[in-house]
Design brief:
about 290 residues, eleven-stranded antiparallel sheet, about 20% helix
């Protein structure tokens, strides 16, 4: 039995609140050593680019699980890669429409890889963000391959390289649960050891997006004066799990401007996020009469 190609578009709507924006930032920053700098008014309460992913995740997760509805056994969903392009950050009080398209599926030895594209728009059809997500449905074998699995390259650095930097963190079970609650991503492999073992992991693992979000917070603190809204695009590939208690090393390699920061996240067991990148907008000029 095979699953037919899904209908092209799925949609949902959500009104953003300040509480959810702040809760996600706080959950990610819980293992950082200090609060976010606030050199620009309100930046500590602004939405991370990862918030766009959170707004699309519930619909994306339900859609890819629907693809696997004909499987004889329940499947686990493993996030493989993420690209986020922000045109305008979401703001509290705004109603966001998420439109999701399934781009393709292909068979792999461990299951079926799928790719979905989400677009976030406001009530006036203003575009907020576009996201490209790839995931593996572990053990799925009834889905008929279709479409394409795009893999866009990271943008090229502009100019010379800058100085490198790194930070080390130790994710805890509480940090993993905190991100799960703030993001709404309650996939059992992050919360239940038995479910994680059934999916092939020795214990619960951190969300790939929590690790990416942590890297973006480091980048905002170091290269954008704490203003996370200056990160206008980001991406990465999730290549190894991060277990609680593992030392997570975030390695940052900006260009000289910096307008692009490449990053890698690794543990002693391997690279957790590879081909990571974040694109930064230049700082807005200060109003007349204001000086640094």
């Amino acid at each position: 039995m095979t699953t037919t190609i899904p209908t092209p578009a799925h949609t949902t709507q959500h009104t953003v609140t300040q509480d959810e924006v702040s809760a996600l930032r706080a959950a990610v920053r819980a293992i950082l050593p200090a609060p976010a700098p606030a050199t620009a008014s309100g930046t500590h309460c602004a939405a991370s680019p990862v918030h766009a992913f959170v707004l699309a995740h519930t619909l994306a997760d339900a859609t890819v699980r629907e693809l696997a509805a004909a499987e004889p056994e329940p499947v686990s969903v493993v996030h493989l890669g993420q690209d986020i392009r922000i045109e305008r950050p979401v703001r509290p009080g705004e109603q966001i429409t998420v439109t999701l398209d399934v781009l393709g599926a292909r068979r792999e030895p461990r299951g079926t890889r799928v790719a979905v594209r989400a677009r976030l728009t406001g009530p006036d059809r203003t575009s907020h963000a576009e996201l490209l997500t790839s995931a593996l449905l572990l053990g799925a074998s009834t889905i008929e391959p279709f479409g394409q699995i795009p893999s866009p390259p990271a943008p090229a650095p502009l100019g010379e390289a800058g100085g490198t930097a790194h930070a080390e963190h130790r994710p805890t079970p509480e940090w993993i649960r905190g991100y799960a609650q703030a993001s709404g991503d309650l996939n059992p492999i992050h919360l239940d050891a038995l479910a994680a073992r059934d999916a092939g992991f020795p214990t619960v693992i951190a969300h790939g997006m929590s690790v990416l979000a942590l890297a973006l917070e480091e980048i905002a603190d170091r290269y954008a004066d704490g203003d996370i809204t200056r990160i206008v695009a980001a991406g990465g590939r999730f290549s190894a799990p991060v277990a609680p208690g593992a030392t997570l090393r975030v390695e940052l390699a900006p260009d000289a401007a910096p307008t692009l920061v490449r990053f890698t996240c690794r543990t002693p067991d391997g690279i957790a996020v590879k081909n990571g990148w974040a694109q930064l907008a230049l700082a807005a000029p200060l109003p007349d009469g204001h000086h640094d």
